[in-house]
User: What shape does this take?
Amino acid sequence: MRTELKHYTGGEIVEGFVYNEFEGKGLFGLAGRLVIQPEYQRNYIYNDGKKDVAVIESLLKGYPLGLIYFNVADGGGLEVLDGQPRITSVGRFVTGKFAIHQDGREQTFSSLAVEDQAKIMDSDLLIYECQGTERDIKDWFKTINIAGVPLNTQELLNSIYSGPFVTAAKAEFSNSQNANLQKWSAYVKGDPKRQEILAVALAWVAGSYGLTVDAYLAKHRQDGTIAELKTYFTSVIEWVGTVFVGIPEKEMRGLEWGRLYEAYHNNSYNSAALAADVQALLGDPAVGSRKGIYEYLLGGRQEPQLLMIRLFDDKTKALAYQRQTDRAKADGTSNCPLCAIGDNANKDRIYRRDEMDADHVTAWSKGGATDLANCEMLCITHNRTKGNR
Ligand SMILES: [Zn+2]
Assistant: This one.
C-alpha cells in the first residue's frame, strides 16, 4: 500500500460539506472530491454534544486533530478511511448544526469571532492518502483502532463485506429513523448506529441456514436486495408477538429469538394459557433465570434447568439433615431414605452432612416448593441418580 502525507486546511476539507440528517452521516467534502462516509464506514457517532464539541474546542485551542487517512479511489477521488467522525464534526459545526459554549454563551460557527472562525478554517490537518488494492486497504482498516470508539465486530464485517447488500441492510437496520425500531426494541437489544440491530438480524437469518454471519455476508455481498434478511427478521418478530401476546416483558429483550423460532415456530400454542404461565413463573421466587422462562414454556416444560431453580439454602439443608438423621438413628436405618429402603450394604449407613445433598420431594416442575417441608437430603449417589431422571 502506498501512502503520501498531505496537508489540508479545515476550510478545504469541509468545502461543499453535505450532511444527511436521516442517515446521520457526512457525505461530501473537498468541494465534492472527498466522500466522507463511504459505505464500509460506520455511522457517525460523535453527535452527542460532547465528542463533537471536543473536536471544535481542540481546533480553537490550536491542538492537532490527530492523523486522518484517506483512500485514493480509482479515478482519483478520495474516501475517508479513518477520521470520519472528526471531519463530520467540523462540517456540521461550520454548517450550523450544533453550538459550543464559549465564555458561558452558546456560539454557533456564524456567531464566533472572526479570528476564531479563522482558527477552524485555517487549521492544518495532516492527512495520509493511501493507495492500494481493496484487499490491502480492508485488511489495514480491519487492524486499525480508531481513536475514540473502537470498531465492533459488525462494523468490521460491514467494512470487509462492503457492497450493495451491506448498504441496503444498513439503510434498513442501522437507520435510527426507521419507524419499526421501537417495535423491534421490545425483543432485540442494541444500538442501531453501532450496527447492533443489523448484527442480530444477520445472526438470525444466517443461523437458519447453519451459517456464520461472515459466510452469509460473503455469499450475499453483491446482492442488490435484502428481501430474505428483512422477511426472515420480520417473521421472527411477528411470531414472538403472536405466541407471547400482550405488552412484552423486559426479560424478552435480547433473547435468541431466531434460534427459538427455528426450533418452535411449527408448534401451536395457546397464547392465553402461555401468557398466564409466563406471569406465574415471573412471580415464582424459585425461578433464578427469568430469561429462561420463554424457552422453557416453548419447549413444553421439559427443561427446568433453563430456569435455574434456586436451591435450598444451608439453613434448610441443616434442619432437614438433623431431622432425618435423628429419625434414622432411632429406627436403625440409613439417613438417606433411598438407601434405607434398599437391600444393600448402605441400608443402615449414617452419612455425614457433607456426604449428602438436598432434593425436592415433589419436583419443582410439578409444583413442589423450595422449603423445608419439601426438602429431603439424599446421599450424593442417589441425589445424582434422581437429578438425572
Ligand atoms: Zn442413598
